[in-house]
Amino acid sequence: MRKSLLLAATAISGMSVPAMAQGQDDGIIDSNVIIVTAQRQAQSAQDVPIAVSAFSQEALEAQQIENSSDLQLTLPNITFTKTNFTSSSFTIRGIGDLCVGVSCDQATAIHLNDQPLFSTRLFETEFFDLERVEVLRGPQGTLFGRNATAGVVNVVTAKPNMGEFQAAGDVEYGNYNALKVKGMVNLPIGDSLAFRGAGIYVKRDGYTTNLNGGPDLDDRELYSIRGSLRFEPGPDTTIDLMASYFREDDNRMRIQKQYCQRDETGILGCLNNRRDAQAFNANATFTAALSSQEFLATQGIPTAFALGSLYGPDQYEGIGIPSDPRTVNTAFTPEYFTSELTFQGKIEHDFGPISAQLSGTYQKVKLDSRQDYNNNIGRRDIYAPALNTLAAAAAGLVPGLPASYFAPLASAIIPNGPNGVLCTSDTDTIGLGSFGGNSNCATTPLQYDRSNQQNSSWSAEAIISSDLDGPFNFLLGAIYADYHLTENSYYVNAFAIDYVAGLLGSFTSLGGGLDPSYLGTPYFRNNTDDLTVKSYGLFGEVYFDISDSLKLTGGLRYNNDKKNVQARSTLASFLVPYSQTTNAFESPFVGSFDADPGTPGNQIFQNRQVKNDEITGRAVLDYKISDDNLVYISYSRGYKSGGLNPPLQPIFEVPESFRPEQVDAFEFGSKNTFGNGALQLNLTAFYYKYKDLQLSKIVARTAVNENIDADIYGAEIEAIIRPDPDWMINMGFSYLHTEVKGDTFNSDPRDFGGGRSDAVIIKDITNASNCAVTSTSGNAAGVNAFVNSVNGVINAGLVPGLAAGAGLQPTVAFPADGGIASTGAFGICGVLEAAAAGAFAGGGLDPAAFGGIEYFAAGVPKNIRGNDLPQAPKLKFSVGVQYTMNFDNGMSLVPRVDLAYTGESYGSIFNGNVNRIDGYAQANAQIQLNGTDDRWYVRGFVQNIFDSNSETGLYVTDQSSGLYTNVFTLEPRRYGIGAGFKF
After folding, report:
1. What digits encode the pLDDT tens for the residues 463-512?
2. Residue 416, Cβ density class (10 Å: 0-12 exposed, 13-18 middle, ≥19 buried)
């Protein structure tokens, strides 16, 4: 008879540790058997042929696992990091959320009480009042409602207990003035109804010092509350209802620090060899290009309006960067707000040997985060000549320039004159910014970004399972999920963008005899206005007992996903009259804006749709050698649906969509208990063959996703050692090998020349994007001569639509230690593309005369075959030691120490020293005194004993922002005391 089928499916437990208490109930720890429950039955984790780890609430507290980030410190082949756009990546066996965008599915599915969540902020709160946390490694789908290629994290909340009043509370205080309060109350309401309420409140000062003064940054203030109701109308029926709300409002930083090996040429902003504590060269940015003498000259605009020269000092020249990762210099205080409302319901009923359950979840999420875009304060002095010229034009003192075209610009961004405050557009939703009176003003030029999102989702799932007397049993399930995103935007605002949008708009409208206008939007905004995801799945497994010891499991799943996206990207894209007070997209000139050049006519939004369906499955053969020894072998196929890339600006030829990814996973495992529980040892080996792994990079200020193939293999060891009942040692080890499979050519945003010495990287002065040209014959001198000749044509004003006088200079070599083999130059990519195609051959620019020229809009591809996948450390190990000293009066003292090491990895698929993430060690310690009968306890703790500034991930920004690297770190050393009670 196949017992506990649904348990084996959805409530599996693995290696864990005991609570820091005197007694252990249910014999779970004393016998080294970890038990979890689902429906009516229970099963030892050692009998389940799946690689899973689970932690009870007591185990989480014992190892100081307070949130999802802490899980990586004890689990094999698990990493966790924040990512660039207010999201995170939980990586299992080298597979995480490498896809970036609103239409990307999660590689690691996040479940709450076995039910899937979408765009959840669950990882931002801290764990409280849980039954357990489960982490399943490997593809899931034939048992869980939401498919996943990496695995599943399942957070199971504590349920109400019938017939018993219970309460618990905990207060903790530590350095950084940190206060944490948790509480729980369980109330029986008659014999068949019970209520459980729980909550947590966290408040602490910031971890990051701001050299510009003011409060420390990166603080936290959040709370979460949860109410659960359980009703048992009969012995075979259970109804569970749950509601929870989470809210955070503080100055938390999304990005801890930015590093750069400064590029003195200004063509790249940052070089390709190291992450130094240096400011990037701002001449590589969009604002520097379009406000430069060189660009304005091509437009026939007086260069006295230029904020600088691309060959002169940049905004950050001479400005230092503190090497300490927790010290920044910013004039803009971060803002962070998020909330999540969740309702869940489940009804379960047993019909004798058949059990059925129906469950559903509704979720509503809001998110809004702003912070300094560069975490630094730029120079104002280099703007002074241009601002004086603008003030003069606004006063009618520049001949030929009517004041009516420049006074609105000056009034909006320098309202008190060129020596007063500088005003930067606020991140409004109507596209007017500072020209609609929506601005932030300061004595220094501000730059900040904003990431916001609003979405709601619901899902319904039905499962039927059997517990028959014969050798055959089954589980069948179906799920429908509906996700609706109504707002997702990423903004970049800067004083210089307002200046450029206004200046170019004023001259454009003046030259066309139009009403005085600016270019909208006066900030970058990549906006997904609407996204709908409709998904359903049919899944199930069958179980056949070949003998008392040998069992066969087979499962299948059908997936169907449909996604519709409405989006657009704007940055100084169309004229908007200064006098307009309504939405910028109501401008009489909006007809010049086209969000979808691939469709005839002009569209305000780009609309796209993608559909995917797939059949996946798994097969498992497990053999029980003895009651204490199990071996198994399994095959499973994982699937993650494809999606749509957002609109680009400027437009590049990249795929509109990216394909679904698929993984064939093979696993061998052994679970063993020796010496009557003195040693528990679990071993796992696996091999993954990945097809169309989804991978993101920044192109034209927007994340674009592509597909690659990869191979992954590795091994994991988990052990619990109990030499006697008072000692407990838990250990974990993992090895992981990942590599890009086959010849795979991709362009590296850091090195658009593809490592070739016969390439020239161009910084486009019209939009600050990069392009490259190479010699088809390997003639490095020829390709440099070609670029210089094309720039000479631009300088002479021989290109239609461009005036003379740009003053573009010859190609230059990058610093020898910069990791760039190519040369570079400022130029205009469109003109180079035309010249490479022979458009100027009659004027002496025949590409053949220079040895042949090839043009690359998105960079020269290079072969990344064999490269490691991001966030995939080869080695990890952890060890924890706990000892219980029992006293005659019934009290106990429990000290515990935990040490974890994560090996080096890469933050980018392009690998290389500049993308290397160093290995790091983290150590925690705790000592707890438990009162008689465990009614109360006091403890002292320290986390991150070595005060390591451990980096967990990185992100490379766009070429038009300077190619600097954002890094994400673990928290610094924390220590404190706590006390609690329970009855």
Report:
1. 999 999 999 999 999 999 999 999 999 999 999 999 999 999 999 999 99
2. exposed
- The closest alpha carbon to 191, from 155, 230, 142, belongs to 230
- Chain segment 216-248, per-residue pLDDT in tens: 999 999 999 999 999 999 999 999 999 999 999
Residue 19 or 362, more confident:
362
Per-residue pLDDT tens for 587-640?
999 999 998 877 888 889 989 888 989 999 999 999 999 999 999 999 999 888
Q: Which two tokens stand for residue 457?
A: 């989702």
Q: Which residues of 184-222 are buried (b: 16+ CB within 10 A; e: fewer)?
A: bebebeeebbbebbbbbbbebebbbbbeeeeebbbbbbb
CB 449 within 8 A of CB 370: yes
300: left (phi over 0), alpha (psi -120 to 50) or beta: left
Residue type, 491: Y
DSSP 8-state class, residue 71: H
Residues constituting the chain: 983
Q: How far apart are CA 659 and CA 886, in angstroms?
A: 59
Task: Give the separation between CA 641 and CA 536, rounded to whole angstroms.
Answer: 12
Cβ(485)–Cβ(454) under 8 Å? Answer: yes
Contacts (Cβ under 8 Å, ≥6 apart) of 216: 205, 206, 207, 208, 209, 210
Does the global pTM surpass 0.70?
Answer: yes
CA–CA gap between residue 608 and residue 593 (Å, rounded): 18
What 3-state class would DSSP assign to 441? strand
What would the mean pLDDT of 294-323 be, rounded to a whole number?
Answer: 96
Instruction: Report strand pairing: 550-570 vs 41-44.
Output: unpaired
Beta bridge partners of 875: 735
Query: What is the C-alpha separation between 5 and 618, in angstroms, rounded?
Result: 16
Instruction: Give the closest residue to 563 by CA, choosing from 530, 533, 537.
Output: 533
Question: Could you tell me the two tokens for 591?
Answer: 């007809």
Pull the structure tokens for residue 464.
């039927």
pLDDT in tens, 67-79: 888 999 989 999 9
Residues in CB range of 682: below 8 A, 6 or more apart? 14, 15, 46, 669, 670, 671, 672, 716, 717, 718, 719
**Which of residues 896 and 28 earns the better pLDDT score?**
896
Structure tokens at 915: 């993308």
Nearest to 832 by CA among 759, 781, 915, 746: 759
Per the listing, tokens 């010891």 go with 549
